[in-house]
Specification:
The protein is an alpha/beta fold. It has 18 helices and twelve strands. The chain binds iron/sulfur cluster (SF4). Iron/sulfur cluster (SF4) binds at residues 134, 136, 163, 165-166, 373, 401, 404-406.
Length: 460
């Protein structure tokens, strides 16, 4: 068995140069990763990376999104800032060849990637949105400084079954002179006695009335988009858009399954998190994201076939819930002897296949309602438990998001549900955007979790 080692930024540069000298073909956004430090992404100096050229493509693709958005604008495309729904509206927006969608919400990670270099959190504080809000407050500051993404031609944001943090911050964004088209995503309630329910992708159920309501909201968004940016999205276009999105989702599904079920981890936790995030809006290039993810899948399949991976077969199989604002904590998992075998990063609905046997706007309505944040925490917990069983996870990390209004209670619900079914350790941690002062205690907690899981393994 061949053990892989994660490498530093400096080692990435050296490996990249070597790969080029062997005739490797870099994509147009390729290059040494260290160049992104000069662009301000100082935080990447503190990360450890997978040692492959395809993983470097993944990072380069992620870190060049702003350039892609500016190029799209120069090419005459309209930029649509979709906010909060995480995965559904971009399918509709990309259905039109003249439109590009992106999530301003992605500013969530800027303080970590830039190592707080441009003080976005301080700017948010000055705008009255302090640390009692979740890290998405960095998005508000990014709108004000204008340094991280081009001003969108149109902004669309979901309300209703969304967290208080996002609603309050998006209202502040609008108040600062950025008009928003609001659309309602209702809370996915339980069915009444005589109501018809429809099973959604991912297994939850929604009332038909609610699906019809969201479908009408989709129709309204299409109408306003046509009026605002002059692009009419037809049902035929959406059918094609769904088919393209499903290709990306199928690739990610295969990637996740291959990683979660491999004897030894073929890819580190950090790169898998980045890959999963691509499902939300294709990192602003729907065709290229498939190239990047297919390369990653091929690499992972080759490693599994060759028995190559990180750590050994005795590493603890960990299920991770919620994304971390400080990406270094994903590196910490392997350093403590754990590997990822199951994830739920708040956007599982962006990973599921979109139905193709029903009218396209209804299919998107079902996807929107399948959002884990649109329903009860018990629904989320049920899906997590099904995946823990499926992937044989031996321990669970619930990563709380500081200030996030939903995190105080849902962690308890999810933890209790897991404990009522499985005899495996569960730990709740909290990870701020820059976690320097918490690193020692986080490491202690993760190490303890791994040790407990190993102890339980021996007793079984
Ligand atoms: S509170 Fe949670 S769901 Fe809301 S924006 Fe923050 S991380 Fe996202």
């Amino acid at each position: 068995m061949d053990r892989l080692q994660q490498i530093t930024l400096e080692e990435c540069d050296a490996a990249y140069g070597q790969w080029l000298s062997y005739g490797g073909q870099a994509p147009r956004y390729g290059g040494r990763l260290s160049r992104h430090v000069k662009d301000g992404n100082k935080g990447i100096e503190r990360l450890k990376f997978d040692n492959s050229a395809v993983a470097m493509n993944l990072w380069n693709f992620l870190l060049t999104e702003e350039e892609r958005l500016r190029e799209a604008r120069s090419a005459g495309k309209k930029l649509i800032g979709t906010m909060k729904d995480l995965g559904t509206l971009p399918v509709m927006v990309y259905a039109h060849p003249g439109l590009v969608a992106f999530y301003p919400d992605g500013a969530w990670w800027i303080p970590c990637l830039m190592d707080e270099n441009d003080r976005l959190l301080e700017v948010a504080d000055q705008l009255g949105v302090d640390g009692t809000f979740c890290p998405v407050r960095a998005m508000l500051a990014a709108f004000v400084t204008g340094d991280h993404f081009p001003a969108p031609d149109m902004l669309i944001c979901s309300v209703g079954a969304t967290c208080d943090d996002f609603s309050a911050i998006a209202q502040r964004v609008e108040g600062l002179g950025n008009p928003i088209l609001w659309w309602e995503l209702p809370h996915r309630r339980a069915l009444g006695h005589d109501e018809t329910g429809i099973e959604l992708p991912g297994g939850a159920c929604a009332a038909k009335d609610q699906i019809d309501f969201v479908k009408d909201e989709m129709t309204r968004i299409i109408r306003v988009m046509a009026d605002t940016v002059g692009a009419s999205v037809t049902d035929d276009m959406i059918v094609h858009g769904i088919s393209e999105a499903n290709k990306v989702r199928a690739c990610l599904a295969e990637l996740r399954l291959t990683i979660f079920t491999a004897d030894i981890a073929p890819l580190p936790a950090l790169e898998l998190l980045v890959a999963e995030m691509m499902a939300i809006h294709f990192c602003s290039d729907r065709d290229e994201v498939l190239v990047v993810l297919s390369g990653l899948l091929e690499l992972v399949q080759q490693r599994v076939a060759a028995g190559v991976g990180y750590l050994g077969p005795d590493s603890v199989r960990v299920f991770w819930i919620n994304p971390v604002a400080d990406l270094r904590v994903m590196n910490m998992l392997e350093e403590c002897g754990g590997r990822i075998c199951g994830t739920e990063y708040l956007f599982t609905h962006a990973l599921d296949q979109i139905p193709t046997h029903i009218p396209p706007r209804e299919a998107l309505a079902r996807m929107a309602l399948a959002d884990p944040m649109a329903g009860a925490a018990q629904d989320r917990a049920r899906r997590i438990c099904a995946d823990i069983k499926r992937f044989g996870s031996e321990a669970v990390i619930i990563s709380r998001i500081p200030g996030a209004s939903h995190c105080a209670l849902e962690g308890v619900v999810i933890k209790e549900t897991i404990r009522s079914i499985f005899d495996i350790p569960v730990v709740e941690i909290e990870v701020p955007p820059v976690s320097d002062t918490f690193q020692a205690s986080l490491r202690t907690r993760l190490s303890a979790l791994i040790e407990i899981a190993k102890g339980q393994r021996k007793r079984k």
